[in-house]
Amino acid sequence: MEEQCIFCSIVEGKIPAAIIHEDDVGLAFLDITPATKGHTVLISKEHYEDIFSVPSEKLEKLIVFAKGLMEHIKEKLSAQGFNMESFIGSASGSMIKHFSFHLIPRYDDDGQERPFATRMKFGSKEELTKYLEETAEKITE
Ligand SMILES: [Zn+2]
Asked: Lower CB count within 10 Å: N or C terminus of the chain?
């Protein structure tokens, strides 16, 4: 574990949390600044900085964990949808350098924006087409 990592402290029981589920690789607890009712943070039990450092076999387990948890939350809280977020790198607004998935239940009347509130703007259809072609090419080359 890393010095003073809040999520590691939750795993170790040094900081209390409203834990709703755990297994050998993951731990899920309610966010203390929830965006909606049931906003859950799923973390790896071991300290990994972000998705890139989580070994693939553990990541698979964590995604299956997330899916099961969302099914459960959907049923128990009558959620009508979810947003799943992972903050990766400082540009994302990442505050805690420990891998997490935020599972945010959505309700038709939750009053929250549908992410993202704003989108990239293009001056014309041609600019959009250029962006799509160039970016797809760059990613796939
Ligand atoms: Zn940690």
From this structure: C
